[in-house]
TrEMBL record:
It comes from the Bacteria. This is ATP-dependent zinc metalloprotease FtsH. It comes from Christiangramia crocea. It is found in: Cell membrane; Membrane. Residues 49-189 form the AAA+ ATPase domain. GO terms for biological process: protein catabolic process; proteolysis. One of its GO terms (molecular function) is ATP binding. Acts as a processive, ATP-dependent zinc metallopeptidase for both cytoplasmic and membrane proteins. Plays a role in the quality control of integral membrane proteins. The chain holds residues 187 to 459 of 661 of the full protein.
Length: 273
């Protein structure tokens, strides 16, 4: 299991240059970078550096990207774990994974732990959940709470966790000293979409007719992930047509495909909700 965890330790090369828009979130996240880089500035004044920070926002708005950028900017190791992995695990495995992960992160401090989809383990323990046997989820959640409380303040480990919905999280997770800081990531507006397109157009060989203004205007409601998807899809379409450059029409075709994909997804999801 150590080997498995080692796989998940990465040196992040992501920086704030890769994160477009999200101005307010970036201001707050920069403070986290500073906690990791210059802890003495805070500790010498008797301040307690936050342990847990919740990144809250719709799918594809850059929560994972932002967490990686923190590690990349602060140049600290990044340990990650996805909440949904635990749901199917055998009893005891989730808790021991959490324990191992915190141990490794403490040994490599300063460091970042990133927990994606924390709602998968941290949902409110309500009646609906109690009907199903959710022992594994519960023991993983309890271990997570134990770890958060167990490591002292100012140990140099900061836990970032991502969720689409902070409102469904167990209140125990949100108490002071746990995930008591929340950073909100919103869907991008038109200008922000433009900035995101710029980031993802960087590696693309584009034709002179590519119009960023039009691309941004015609993608309302799109997330950063959707935009990244359009740019890559456009390049694939152009390659298939044996072109030397990616033209506006390729982007428009890619956009239609991404919209098609989104519509299919919402059709599958909507009957349940
Ligand atoms: P989910 O909730 O679905 O896990 P997420 O919020 O963690 O999504 P990411 O995985 O960070 O979203 O985003 C997916 C990809 O979309 C990123 O790797 C990046 O390529 C692109 N992306 C998302 N937001 C931005 C942004 N603000 N700037 C640049 N690229 C972005």
């Amino acid at each position: 299991s150590t080997a498995k965890l080692m796989d998940r330790t990465i040196k992040s090369t992501t920086t704030f240059k890769d994160v477009a828009g999200l101005k307010e979130a970036k201001v707050e996240i920069k403070e986290i970078v500073d906690f990791l880089k210059n802890p003495e500035t805070y500790t010498k004044l008797g301040a307690k550096i936050p342990k847990g920070v919740l990144l809250v926002g719709p799918p594809g708005t850059g929560k994972t990207l932002m967490a990686r950028a923190v590690a990349g900017e602060a140049q600290v190791p990044f340990f990650s774990l996805s909440g949904s992995e635990f749901v199917e695990m055998f009893v005891g495995v989730g808790a021991s994974r959490v324990r191992d992960l915190f141990k490794k992160a403490k040994e490599s401090a300063p460091s970042i732990i990133f927990i994606d989809e924390i709602d998968a383990v941290g949902r409110t323990r309500d009646k609906a959940n109690a009907l199903r046997t959710n022992d594994e989820r519960e023991s993983t959640l309890n271990q997570l709470l134990t770890e958060l409380d167990g490591f002292g303040v100012n140990t140099g480990v900061i836990v970032l966790a991502a969720t689409n919905r902070a409102d469904i999280l167990d209140k125990a997770l949100l108490r002071p000293g746990r995930f008591d800081r929340h950073i909100f990531l919103e869907l991008p507006n038109k200008d922000e979409r433009k900035e995101i397109f710029l980031v993802h157009l960087r590696p693309i060989k584009k034709a002179a007719d590519v119009d960023l203004e039009i691309l941004a205007s015609l993608s309302p409601g799109f997330s950063g992930a959707d935009i990244a998807n359009i740019c890559n899809e456009a390049a694939l379409i152009a390659a298939r047509k044996k072109k030397n450059e990616v033209a506006q029409e390729d982007f428009m075709e890619a956009r239609d495909r991404v919209i098609g994909g989104l519509e299919r997804k919402s059709k599958i999801i909507s009957p349940k909700e």
